[in-house]
Design brief:
The chain has about 180 residues and is of the alpha+beta class. The protein contains three helices and seven strands; from the N terminus they run ααβββββββα. A hairpin with a 2-residue loop joins β6 and β7.
Length: about 180
């Protein structure tokens, strides 16, 4: 029989792993109830940045422009709306409804590098695109560095090739020249 070291936190770590697994999976799969997640629809959002602006793109498929509202207040961008279930005909009998419906609110704190006053938004083909231009004072710019004086100047390097057939007099002259220049090899 092998000796096993006692770990007083083993059970606690197992409990933490189980709780993490529970909350990292879809709740409807854990409980086996497809209807439990109804009304919790949120549009998918992409946020990216380039040198001039930050762009927020939201997927709002099947929604009309009147179904959602966009606002910026206290440097927070907020998207609110509601996707309604529209039954086509009273005689229709749905066997399965997998698309989510309901009201939603998505809020994002904007960085201090953007300005909300000049923001613009465009809604096309079910995608809302919000462009938030960066402030002029925070845009990256190249700064040229000027040098004055001779202390920053780089001295040219001298590369010398050695030959196989050299006389001792030539080597002595070469060594004296190197010592005078302050270089020793």
């Amino acid at each position: 029989m092998s000796i096993v070291r006692y770990d007083p936190f083993h059970d606690l770590r197992n409990l933490q792993d189980e709780v993490n697994r529970l909350f990292s999976t879809n709740i409807s799969r854990v409980f086996g109830d497809e209807g439990i997640a109804r009304g919790a629809w949120n549009p998918l959002i992409d946020i990216y940045e380039n040198k001039d602006q930050i762009v927020v793109e939201a997927e709002l498929p099947g929604m009309k422009r009147e179904d959602f509202d966009l606002s910026i207040e206290n440097n927070v961008l907020t998207l609110r709306g509601e996707r309604r279930f529209e039954k086509k005909d009273e005689g229709d009998n749905y066997h399965r409804v997998e698309r989510s419906y309901g009201s939603f609110t998505r809020s994002f704190t904007l960085p201090q590098t953007v300005t909300g006053e000049t923001a613009n938004a465009e809604y096309k083909n079910g995608v809302l695109r919000v462009s938030l231009p960066k402030r002029e004072e925070v845009k990256a710019r190249r700064i040229e560095i000027k040098s004055t004086g001779t202390e920053d100047a780089v001295a040219p390097r001298i590369i010398e090739a050695k030959t196989k057939n050299t006389s001792s007099a030539t080597n002595a002259t070469h060594d004296k020249a190197q010592k005078a220049a302050g270089r020793q090899f």
